[in-house]
Amino acid sequence: MKxxxxxxxxxxxxxxxxxxxxxxxxTTRGELDHLEQANVANGMRWMRxxxxxxxxxxxxxxxxxxxxxxxxxxxxxxxxxxxKNIGIDPREIGVELRLLLDNARYWIEHxxxxxxxxxxxxxxxxxxxxxxxNGNGRHARVMADAILMKIFDQPPIDWAGGHELQAIGPRRSxxxxxxRAADQEDYSPLFTFAGxxxxx
Length: 200
Ligand SMILES: Nc1ncnc2c1ncn2[C@@H]1O[C@H](COP(=O)(O)OP(=O)(O)O)[C@@H](O)[C@H]1O
Ligand SMILES: [Mg+2]
Fold this sequence. Notes:
54% of the residues lie in helices and 0% in strands. It is mainly α and 200 residues long. Adenosine-5'-diphosphate binds next to α5, α6 and α7.
């Protein structure tokens, strides 16, 4: 189970979840990363084609996860039912996601925050809920970008900033510590990380 030694802030799999791997020959983290990357690229193409009016629904959130990870994991698009070191009680996922989607619709309608701030806050809240057994970070980054691109007609966030965000390194550490600050309601490190300017 070599591929279980994940980078900082990654969610370890349970044995059951590992069973959901569609490619039984995969034994290393590198092989798994490779398969997931190809799948994620296809899922992002799907996102670009999808309709704006469907976006802020549970159905879309789950379908996007399935599009990003469904070629690799059988459980893609289904909420987790196990406790993780990150994320809320699995029984609360449906309710909390519903609240987040309602909040986001309200923020958009009432221009509570700027488009980019809405996308960043949405991203943090979604990874905080941690709806899925894995892929939450990547899925929630694509979700935030979908909000910016499809609802606001704005460019996506430069999450990686020229680095490889999935790999261990300074960019990843900055990202994870910014999320931890946001967990404590200090959003400014995450705003800086995501390139939100003061006047935005
Ligand atoms: N303290 C935290 N608060 C909120 N989100 C976090 C925290 N630590 C990690 N995360 C998020 O969880 C993600 C890891 O979860 P995981 O399901 O493994 O996603 P992925 O497989 O896409 O990396 C990180 O990329 C990050 O987005
Ligand atoms: Mg992971």
